[in-house]
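Note to self: keep these together.
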Amino acid sequence: MVLMDIVKLKNTYNKNGYVKLNNLIPLTKYKELFKSLCIVLDLKEVNKNIINFDNKKIHSELISLRKNNRFSDIYKILQNINCLNSLYSYQPLLKIISKFINCDKDLIMVSGRMYRLDSINDKKFSYGWHQDSYYYKQNRNFENGCVVLFPLTNTKKINGALNLVNSSFKLGHIQHKKSKSNNYYEINRSFAKKYIDIFEGKIGDVLIMKLNTVHKSGLNLSSKFRISCGARFHNTLSKDFNP
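Structure:
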């Protein structure tokens, strides 16, 4: 990706508070990630060389596991599997992030790694409107960090694609309150529909979002899980950095 392309992307990022990168990650980077999921789910019959997180057998197994305690164990294992790092350390991505948060790409810190398995019609474990800067305080100046999301399944509005409030980072840090329905802290206000965008994407796409951009997951009304992963990236050289 040439420098001019990165400048255009950064302009969009600074205007909206987020930017989508289509087909940035080559499919081969997901091979070990896919294989690991199949192994953890004990799916011997799935061809691990054909990368398809939308595979029906995967979702059938996840739906079955969601009914018992094993799901929680598998979810915890997936959060820290080593092959996630192949995405977080992908050099063309780090080159873009380094320009966005003004940090040498080799000195960027990664925190808040996540491997999301958003189940069908799940309201209990879904955050309402929030800013990641409320949870991740490594950079007190939100401009010095960002959130990066990687869809693994085809993500559409029907399966709970992320809702983002355009230009909401300009509101600064917004007060969060504990939700009455769960233990998450959320923003107790609504936002006009004209400002809400939906991040629909597929494997290989990437969303980079400012730490102060207001967002929430949509409700998954499909027959499959929405699978994705992501992390927060921080400028360790900025004066506001808190290790």
